Structure formats: C-alpha cells, structure tokens
C-alpha cells in the first residue's frame, strides 16, 4: 500500500481507538475505583525496521493510575485506598486486582466483592468476625467491642488485607466487574497505601477532559480522512491522464 495512504489509515485507526477509550471513560465516570484508560504512542516503534518489515503497533492502552477523590458512605465494608496499592481478589481464572471497594459479607462470613469473589488477605480468604468489623489504615481487621463500635485496644487482628502494587508501566488487562490483571508479579505494598473504612474511591475520570479529547480526536480523524481522499483523487487523475496519453 502507498505509504501516504498507509499513514492516513494508521492515524484513523488510532483515532478510532482513542474515541473508544474516551467513550469508555465517560461511561465509567461514576464507577467507584475506575481508572481511566489512555492511548500512548511509542515513537521508537514508528521507526521502520532496517530489514523493511512492517513496524509494530505504535500505540498502546495504559491505565491512568492517579488517585481518585474519596466519598464517605458510612458502610463498614466500603473500603477505599489512598496510595498506589490494589486489593487482591480470587477468581476462577486466577488472582485479579481492584480498587472498587464496595465489599460485602457472604453467607459463609467471608469478605467478598459485589459479584461474590473472595477478597484475599495475607493468609488467604478473609473470614470476618461477628458484628461490625473495624479496619485500620494498615488493612488489619479487628473485632469490635459489643455496642461500642471500636476495635479492642489490646486485641489481635483476625485478618489483614493483602494490598499489592506493580512496577510502573506494567501492562494491564481489564477483566470486567472492576477487576484488572497485570503482566508481572505483584509485590506487597507495605506502608505505601492507607485503607479508609467507610469510604469509596471515586473514578479519576473528568468528564470535561474526556469530551475535549473526543472533539480533538474527531477533528484529527476528519483531517486524515480528507488527506486520504485527496491523495486518492490525485492518483485517479494521474492514471486518467496517463490513459489519455499512451
């Protein structure tokens, strides 16, 4: 394919992908714990390989991991994270990670996500104590004194949330229901993140920014489409003139 047409097509495909990302972000602007997706260009990959082979894809999807604001709910099993860590969750496909902390107690007394997947602690699945549990900023879970709603001052924690982090730039994959998988191994995020009981983290999407991104991308897409159409018309005119002058 002609290089100019190929570049125009690549630019339009990248524009469509950016519009998809912006649309998804807007749809999740009110989803607790949601991290917006962004398309990033890898300019090194735009260089044509020396052997003439096709260059690999020059854009990739990344999560914007900036902290969202906190909203208070007053619910004892609503948890928010202030810092870079993730909650670890057991699923049928393996462990996954989430910042969506609207957890609940299942029929077996376990701490689970809204969809019923067990939330993991440092010793495996977490079985909650009777009554209203108290969870401190380190993710330690205590029984509450009957009628007082406070952690026992001298009691030992019955469990501790497993909070993990990943290296900067780790490739992520959305699994649905607020769950994310990462390439690479997690590490314990000791001391890097605080747990806030009775809060949820808001999405870090700003709707106005996403609307601006949509409009800019649409204008760029239209420009690239005009370039492709103009170049195609120029080629057609050239071929017609050649045919008229054998």
TrEMBL record:
Protein name: Flagellar hook-basal body protein
Keyword Glycosyltransferase in record: no
Predominant location category: other
Location(s), subcellular: Bacterial flagellum basal body
Top-level taxon: Bacteria
Location of the Flagellar hook protein FlgE/F/G-like D1 domain: 80-137
Family statement drawn from the similarity comment of this UniProt entry: Belongs to the flagella basal body rod proteins family.
Pfam families (UniProt xref): Flg_bbr_C, LlgE_F_G_D1
């Amino acid at each position: 394919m002609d290089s100019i047409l190929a570049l125009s097509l690549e630019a339009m495909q990248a524009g469509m992908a950016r519009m998809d990302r912006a649309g998804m972000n807007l749809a999740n602007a009110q989803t607790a714990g949601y991290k917006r997706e962004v398309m990033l260009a890898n300019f090194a990959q735009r260089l044509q390989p020396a052997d003439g082979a096709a260059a690999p894809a020059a854009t990739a999807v990344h999560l914007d991991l900036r902290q969202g604001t906190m909203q208070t709910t007053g619910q004892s099993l609503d948890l928010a994270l202030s810092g870079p860590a993730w909650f670890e969750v057991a699923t049928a496909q393996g462990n996954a990670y989430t910042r969506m902390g609207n957890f609940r107690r299942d029929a077996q007394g376990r701490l689970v996500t809204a969809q019923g997947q067990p939330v993991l602690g440092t010793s495996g699945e977490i079985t909650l104590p009777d009554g209203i549990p108290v969870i401190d900023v380190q993710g330690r879970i205590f029984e509450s004194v009957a009628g007082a709603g406070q952690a026992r001052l001298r009691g030992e924690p019955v469990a501790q949330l497993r909070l993990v982090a990943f290296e900067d730039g780790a490739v992520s994959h959305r699994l649905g229901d607020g769950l994310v998988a990462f390439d690479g191994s997690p590490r314990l995020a000791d001391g890097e993140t605080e747990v806030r009981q009775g809060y949820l983290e808001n999405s870090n999407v700003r709707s106005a920014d996403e609307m601006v991104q949509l409009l800019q991308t649409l204008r760029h897409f239209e420009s690239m489409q005009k370039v492709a159409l103009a170049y195609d018309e120029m080629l057609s005119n050239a071929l017609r003139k050649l045919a008229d002058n054998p």
